[in-house]
Amino acid sequence: GIITSPNYPQEYNNNADCTWTVLAEPGDTIALVFSDFQLEEDYDVLEITGTEGSS
């Protein structure tokens, strides 16, 4: 699938707080590929976290 920020390709609103949750089956691999990515220094943050469920 494709994930974009709100209003893409235009700028998003100031103070936007965006969260995306990607779910997968146990054993699956998730790959993130960024094709157009910009951060505004001192304001924007990209945080990627992952958890492994218990079996």
**Overall pLDDT:** 87
Radius of gyration computed on alpha carbons: 14 Å
Shape assignment: elongated
CA(first)-CA(last) distance? 27 Å
Low-confidence spans: pLDDT under 50, at least 5 residues?
none
Strand residue content: under 5%
Number of helices: 0
Give the number of DSSP strands: 0
Oligomer: single chain
SS content category: little secondary structure
How much helicity do the residues have? Answer: under 10%
- Characterize the largest beta sheet: strand count, sense, and whether it forms a barrel: none
Organism: Cirrhinus mrigala
Pfam family, one: CUB
Protein name: CUB domain-containing protein
Keywords: Disulfide bond, Repeat
Written account of the structure:
By secondary structure, the protein is largely without helices or strands. It contains no helices and no strands. The radius of gyration is 14 Å and the shape is elongated. The model has no long low-confidence stretch (mean pLDDT 87).
Salient structural properties:
55 residues; 0% helix; elongated
Quick description:
The protein has 55 residues and is low in regular secondary structure. It has no helix or strand.
